[in-house]
Amino acid sequence: MTKYIFVTGGVTSSLGKGIISASLAKLLQARGYRVTIQKFDPYINIDPGTLNPYEHGECFVTEDGAETDLDLGHYERFLNVPTSQANNITTGRIYQNVINAERQGAYLGKTVQVVPHITDEIKRNMRMLGNSGDFDIVITELGGTVGDIESLPFIEAVRQFKWEEGANNAIVIHLTLIPFLAAAGELKTKPTQHSVKALLEYGIQPDILVCRTEHPISQDIRKKIALFCNVNVNAVIESRDASTIYDVPLLMMKEQLDKTVLSKLKLAQKNEPDMESWKEFLGRLKNPTSEVRIGLIGKYVELPDAYKSIIESFVHAGSKNECKVKVEYIHSEGIYPDNAHEKLGHLDGVLVAPGFGSRGIEGKIDTIKYVRENNVPFFGICLGMQCAVIEYGRNVIGLEGAHTTEIEENCAHPVINMMEEQKQVTEKGGTMRLGSYPCDLKKGTKAYAIYGRTHITERHRHRYEFNSAYLQQYEDAGMVASGINPESKLVEIIELKNHPFFVGGQFHPELKSTVANPHPLFVKFVAAAKEHAKKVSN
């Protein structure tokens, strides 16, 4: 029988429910349990696909093409198990399903209400992964904080769910804050007490409290929290600030969070968690033998969460190379031909990030011209790859006015244009080319050497593509289309022969990089940056 764990948050947002959920899942997985995590978001958007990155950070895309919350990226990076559309549910999707059912007459004329119809639909989605038979434990993270108006139906659904499943089959972990008041010189438990009280008012007694804190929690404070929040002392878990999110599973293991959870769920302890490979990863990460500085050129650089998977991919690749990757965020709007050397000359590698729209695109093109001419390792993702095509067309092939029809519909040379199947699409949400698609690599190319095989799959999120009408001109001029989709013949990867590392991908490799399997494109890009740094220092 599948067991369920619900993770709620109190006091303030951004306490790290996603990291705690992923860390607990990692420990349970390391004990031999089959675990998955799902995220319930209380906003009314159907998915984050239409949200501005400044609003919600990165939009993470799953293998099956779902546009989801960035926390799913953490789940995959920690567990090394793909997520799906069933792993991210929003209030918008819940209401859409209920309204569609009502329009079809599924409720037989009954008045459709938040309770029971909305809560029943929430519970149906909570059980979806458990009913598949693929998992022993399903962890469900509830977005927002207890007391938010928009999250009330989810909290009520959890109350009902716990009652239906029984105390040993469904538990609640409440993540809360123990602030340190510098003036008083002490940790304060009152915000946690109030947060738990709010949860109790909705009929839910948390089974475990995970307390975020900057300072150690003494045994006396643990006893006080346990007494006033009605939990066992060993169910009060300290979650100290860590130097990296990848420390958290080991910190939670030290606090015996996984043991406490298994005890509450009446599950066998099995073996101690096998975290050796995780510790090796952390050892390499914290003891680098070299350092590189890589520029991330984008238009949302004020909010690093907009590029979360890219940043974490550099962490994985850095550990693999025993190299510290210092990422420098550079706004593409501030780069011009006359200041490119000043902005980029000190870098060991440059990644031009994905994005949409015209803002900052000329800065990305000027960046690529500089790194191409100066043999600086370059990696372009999605729009970054398209900008490389535009730059090469303009400055090497001589296609004056080369551009993408996304920005200039009637440009002289539409070297990037809208995919044929996208031309009839009018709705924005969930309609791009999304999810995993195959790609065949040409032998003898950099891409083939990097992947070590001829057939790969990668995840996509785009409407525009390389215009194949120009392919022969590009190949004649030295730009190689080293990866091609076998069905649509879409150019997936471009590279330059006579350059230390100049590779662009139409897909998003960052979405598949995990601690256990760092993405080979990032690994080789960091290795090329290391080589460049060595040459410069010599």
What does this structure look like?
- It is a single chain.
- The chain is an alpha/beta fold.
- Helix content is 37%, strand content 22%.
- The protein has 18 helices and 23 strands.
- It has a 9-stranded mixed sheet, sandwiched between helices. A 7-stranded parallel sheet has the order 5-2-6-1-7-10-11, sandwiched between helices.
- Helix 1 crosses helix 9 and helix 12 (308-320) crosses helix 18.
- The longest helix is centred in the N-terminal third of the chain and has 18 residues, at 114-131.
- The chain is globular.
- The mean pLDDT is 93.
Using only C-alpha atoms, the radius of gyration works out to: 25 Å
Our measurement of the CA-to-CA distance between the termini, rounded to an integer number of angstroms, reads 62 Å
Largest sheet: 9 strands, mixed
Task: Identify the strand order in the major beta sheet.
Answer: 13-12-14-15-23-22-21-18-19
- Quick one: overall form? globular
| Strand-residue proportion | 15-25%
**Number of DSSP strand runs:** 23
Q: How many alpha or pi helices?
A: 18
**What percentage of residues falls in helices of 4 or more residues?**
25-40%
Instruction: Report the mean per-residue pLDDT as an integer.
Output: 93
Outline of this structure?
This protein is α/β, with parallel strands linked by helices.
What's the topology here?
Elements: E1 3-9, H1 17-30, E2 35-41, H2 53-56, E3 60-61, E4 67-68, H3 71-79, E5 88-90, H4 91-103, H5 114-131, E6 137-142, H6 152-165, E7 170-177, E8 180-181, E9 186-187, H7 190-201, E10 208-213, H8 219-229, E11 236-240, H9 248-254, H10 257-264, H11 276-286, E12 290-298, H12 308-320, E13 323-331, H13 340-344, E14 349-352, H14 361-373, E15 378-381, H15 383-397, E16 402-404, E17 413-418, E18 433-441, H16 446-451, E19 455-462, E20 464-466, H17 471-476, E21 479-484, E22 491-496, E23 502-505, H18 520-537
Parallel strand pairs: 1-6, 1-7, 2-5, 2-6, 7-10, 10-11, 12-13, 12-14, 14-15, 15-23, 16-17
Antiparallel strand pairs: 3-4, 8-9, 17-20, 18-19, 18-21, 21-22, 22-23
Helix pairs in contact: 1-3, 1-9, 4-5, 5-6, 11-12, 12-18, 14-15
